[in-house]
Specification:
about 600 residues; alpha+beta; 8 helices; elongated; endoplasmic reticulum; membrane; coiled coil; signal
Amino acid sequence: MTFKLDLFLITLAVILSPVLSDLIFTKVDRRIDLTSQIVRISSTIRVENEGTDVVSEVLLIFPVEQAKYLSHIQATSNEGKGKAKGSAINFPVNVVYPKEMPPTLKFYSVSLPKGLNKGDSLTFDVFAVFTHLLSPFPETITQADVQFVLFLDTAYILSPYTVKVQSLSVKLPEARIEFYTKLENTKIHGSEIKYGPYENAPPYSFALIRFHFENNQPFPVAQELVREIEVSHWGSVQITEHYNLVNGGAQNKGGFSRFDYQARPFARGASAFSKLVAKLPPRTHSVYYRDEIGNISTSHLWGNLRKTDLEIEPRYPMFGGWRTSFTIGYSLPLQDFLFQDQGKRFLNISFGSPINEVVVDRLIVRVVLPEGSSDFSVSVPFSHKQWHEKKISHLDIDGRPVVVLEKENVVPEHNQHFQVYYKFNSISMLREPIMLIFGFFVLFVSCIIYMHSDMSISKSSPSYLAKLQWDEVQTVIQQVQNIINRCLTIHDKLDASLRDLSRTGDVQACKAARKAADASLKELSKELKSLLSFLQSAQQATQILPKVEELVAKERDLQERLVVKHMTVVDCYEKKFGGREIENRVASQQQRITTLRQEVDDLLEFIDEI
């Protein structure tokens, strides 16, 4: 930038630009604020017409290299003092292209409310805001270094008119000043440097001045900010802001030491920032702060009836050149921002970013209106790009109309209210409830129809008949298992009667138990016979039948051996044999009984798993 500005000044020195009118600036007071990353220049200009023709516009000039960073310019009336001073009137400011002017200059026309006749004068204020004019110098610093920046301008106002008297005041941060240009009538008071007054400067006069000073203020730059404002007539305005943020200060070189950052105050990075403050409207609620990883808990919220402050901390301190992305979301009461006028509804809400002193390179504002909105228009107090889109959300049919506004090089001065006007029929609010009611009605009716419908396969189909037969086979197998289990229970009772015999010696009771067991086993045997006959005739039981027959055979063998054992033991007790001799007589039978019982249990378990 330094080279280009010097080249511009050389060009001015050799070009004899014509005087555009008989206007003169009788007095100019300029004030440049360099206390943050944003350069703000305020000028109070008194203009007088010395010619005979009526003049209705005043031209302002900026170098092209400076004008491309011009974010906001405003001209207002400055008539009267104190109580006599009325409310400020904004004058229209537009870019113009006068003939035979050097391409290194950019001209802006301030349209006056009424023409100036000969001898008439007018005092007005010009407020210009620039971004990216402060160049870090050096461009890279370490974690422990402070940040110095370089700024260039001219001590004389660049004007196509003669300037009778002018002065300049430059406000710097309360920090060290490495260098500043010293001209005639230059004074310094603390962090403020004053130039002038200078008299009778001809048109296109200039005097290059440079400032090299310490500036450790945060340089947050949102390379892109997407604000989505969604209007719901059910009671809220939902705002979602997606930030791609970078520290626009001097680039950090070398590694980052978390230990030094936390333990050594001098190495914390004077120009780094670890928190940002967003000024939200009063009565803000449902606030969240997150990024791609998830919710970020390092945030604090304060609020009262007049304001709401949200303090957010990124996941890491932001040194020069470091980037981060995050999302802020919050809800606002609908009645505070939506109004009606002449049959239309209009949304009145702020345009720019709520974060303090952030520069936005590209801002996109998406206003999502309720479905069914029509005839919408936008009123924004500055130039912008605009187009329309559609957004499909839950329970939408045609989609919601979206008004998209785009502006580049946005500063806090753009955080003004704008209006979106549209028509909306209140009956359209019933669309979503009716859709929900109808949807639930269809769901319930479908469930009722389903529950009362026969969804089974045709009863004459082979697959259906095969399924029925298999179900019958499974039922019979379960009955067989139940009978076998009952037989095993009777076997256990026979063993229990033998234990009672050894304890009491009551032979008759033991015989009675065996007689009852024989009767029960015969009845169960009859039931098994009919069930086996069914399985033998069923095609679906072909694979399982051998196992069932094996189970029945082993149970019968077990039953016979238990009866023989029982008779042997009773006979021995009647003959008064000793306990040792009785055990020897039934030892071989008992071993076989134990083996058979285990085999029967294994077969039952196998069949149960089929």
